[in-house]
C-alpha cells in the first residue's frame, strides 16, 4: 500500500492528552493545542494552577506565554475523553505513571529518552510490558523544549507500527514550526534517543577537559558507530539510526550546553566528581542511569561499545587520564568493522 493511501486511512485524533508538566511536556502541549484541544496532566498542583490561571509554567518555562486554550489538570479522570497520549515523563519515572492509566486502546506515544535502570527495558519495551495489547509509539528527535516552546523550527521522528496511528498523529501534530516524519521503526527511534544521552556526556567531558574539536568529532562519529551496532542487534533499522531520532539527536545533544547530559559531562571533564554533581543537580540526567544499563546490554549481546564503557568508568570514579588512555590505546582496526 502506498504512503498516500495509508495517509488517507489515517485515524483522527481530536483531543490529545499530554502527561508531564515539565519543559518537554509543556512544549508538546503547546504544539498539540494548535490543531485542536489538548489537556496537560501533572502532579504538581501549583504548576497546574499557574498554567490555567496565568498561562505560564513558572518552574520550567517561566519566560514563555502559553496558549489560553491549553488546559492543565492534576486529575487523571479529566483525560477520559482524550484520543491519544503523549507521555513526556522522565524515563526513571515512566513506569509509575503508566501504571496509573486505564488499560484501553488509546495510543501511547512515548516522548522520553532512556532506559529503565532496574529492568534494562527501553521505553517502548516497558510500555509493552504494562500494556501488551495497546498501540505504542515514540516521538523522538533533535529537540530542546525551550526552542519548541518558542516556535523555532523543529523536526522529529514519530514512530508507530500502525500506519493509521503514525500518519494520523503526524497530521494532528504538524504545524509550520514542528514537522513530524513518520516511521514504523519504534525500536530504532527508542535506541537512538537512549544512547545519545550517554554519548553527550562523553562530548561534554571532551569540552570540559579541553581535549579539542577533533576529539569531539571523533566521539560523535565513533559513538554513532556504537549506536548503530547495538541498534541493529536489537532489531532497529539502520536508516532510522541515520535519521532524526538517531544521528540528528546525537549531533544536537553533543554540541550544546542546553543539553543536561552534555553539561554533566562538561563538569566531569573539569574535575567535578559524580557525587558532587548529584548533590547540586535538581534535574534528571538520563545518561547517568542509561550508561551502566547499556554496558550490561552490550556485553550480553556481544556488541563492542568502548565509549559507553569509558563513561561508565568515569561515573565509577576512575581518573580522566586513565580512561582517555584506555580508549586511545585500544587495538587498531578497520573503521567500518561489524557495523551490520
TrEMBL record:
<feature type="binding site">
    <location>
        <position position="260"/>
    </location>
    <ligand>
        <name>sn-glycerol 3-phosphate</name>
    </ligand>
</feature>
<dbReference type="GO" id="GO:0141152">
    <property type="term" value="F:glycerol-3-phosphate dehydrogenase (NAD+) activity"/>
</dbReference>
<keyword id="KW-0812">Transmembrane</keyword>
<feature type="binding site">
    <location>
        <position position="43"/>
    </location>
    <ligand>
        <name>NADPH</name>
    </ligand>
</feature>
<dbReference type="Pfam" id="PF07479">
    <property type="entry name" value="NAD_Gly3P_dh_C"/>
</dbReference>
<feature type="binding site">
    <location>
        <position position="145"/>
    </location>
    <ligand>
        <name>NADPH</name>
    </ligand>
</feature>
<keyword id="KW-0520">NAD</keyword>
<keyword id="KW-1208">Phospholipid metabolism</keyword>
<keyword id="KW-0963">Cytoplasm</keyword>
<feature type="transmembrane region" description="Helical">
    <location>
        <begin position="12"/>
        <end position="32"/>
    </location>
</feature>
<keyword id="KW-0521">NADP</keyword>
<keyword id="KW-0444">Lipid biosynthesis</keyword>
<feature type="binding site">
    <location>
        <position position="249"/>
    </location>
    <ligand>
        <name>sn-glycerol 3-phosphate</name>
    </ligand>
</feature>
<feature type="domain" description="Glycerol-3-phosphate dehydrogenase NAD-dependent N-terminal">
    <location>
        <begin position="16"/>
        <end position="163"/>
    </location>
</feature>
<feature type="binding site">
    <location>
        <begin position="20"/>
        <end position="25"/>
    </location>
    <ligand>
        <name>NAD(+)</name>
    </ligand>
</feature>
<feature type="binding site">
    <location>
        <position position="260"/>
    </location>
    <ligand>
        <name>NAD(+)</name>
    </ligand>
</feature>
<feature type="domain" description="Glycerol-3-phosphate dehydrogenase NAD-dependent C-terminal">
    <location>
        <begin position="185"/>
        <end position="318"/>
    </location>
</feature>
<feature type="binding site">
    <location>
        <position position="44"/>
    </location>
    <ligand>
        <name>NADPH</name>
    </ligand>
</feature>
<keyword id="KW-0547">Nucleotide-binding</keyword>
<feature type="binding site">
    <location>
        <position position="113"/>
    </location>
    <ligand>
        <name>substrate</name>
    </ligand>
</feature>
<dbReference type="InterPro" id="IPR013328">
    <property type="entry name" value="6PGD_dom2"/>
</dbReference>
<feature type="binding site">
    <location>
        <position position="24"/>
    </location>
    <ligand>
        <name>NADPH</name>
    </ligand>
</feature>
<keyword id="KW-1133">Transmembrane helix</keyword>
<feature type="binding site">
    <location>
        <position position="141"/>
    </location>
    <ligand>
        <name>sn-glycerol 3-phosphate</name>
    </ligand>
</feature>
<comment type="function">
    <text>Catalyzes the reduction of the glycolytic intermediate dihydroxyacetone phosphate (DHAP) to sn-glycerol 3-phosphate (G3P), the key precursor for phospholipid synthesis.</text>
</comment>
<dbReference type="InterPro" id="IPR036291">
    <property type="entry name" value="NAD(P)-bd_dom_sf"/>
</dbReference>
<protein>
    <recommendedName>
        <fullName>Glycerol-3-phosphate dehydrogenase [NAD(P)+]</fullName>
        <ecNumber>1.1.1.94</ecNumber>
    </recommendedName>
</protein>
<dbReference type="GO" id="GO:0006650">
    <property type="term" value="P:glycerophospholipid metabolic process"/>
</dbReference>
<feature type="binding site">
    <location>
        <position position="261"/>
    </location>
    <ligand>
        <name>sn-glycerol 3-phosphate</name>
    </ligand>
</feature>
<feature type="binding site">
    <location>
        <position position="259"/>
    </location>
    <ligand>
        <name>sn-glycerol 3-phosphate</name>
    </ligand>
</feature>
<feature type="binding site">
    <location>
        <position position="196"/>
    </location>
    <ligand>
        <name>sn-glycerol 3-phosphate</name>
    </ligand>
</feature>
<dbReference type="GO" id="GO:0141153">
    <property type="term" value="F:glycerol-3-phosphate dehydrogenase (NADP+) activity"/>
</dbReference>
<feature type="binding site">
    <location>
        <position position="113"/>
    </location>
    <ligand>
        <name>NADPH</name>
    </ligand>
</feature>
<dbReference type="GO" id="GO:0051287">
    <property type="term" value="F:NAD binding"/>
</dbReference>
<keyword id="KW-0472">Membrane</keyword>
<feature type="binding site">
    <location>
        <begin position="260"/>
        <end position="261"/>
    </location>
    <ligand>
        <name>substrate</name>
    </ligand>
</feature>
<keyword id="KW-0594">Phospholipid biosynthesis</keyword>
<feature type="binding site">
    <location>
        <position position="260"/>
    </location>
    <ligand>
        <name>NADPH</name>
    </ligand>
</feature>
<dbReference type="GO" id="GO:0046168">
    <property type="term" value="P:glycerol-3-phosphate catabolic process"/>
</dbReference>
<dbReference type="Pfam" id="PF01210">
    <property type="entry name" value="NAD_Gly3P_dh_N"/>
</dbReference>
<dbReference type="GO" id="GO:0005829">
    <property type="term" value="C:cytosol"/>
</dbReference>
<feature type="active site" description="Proton acceptor">
    <location>
        <position position="196"/>
    </location>
</feature>
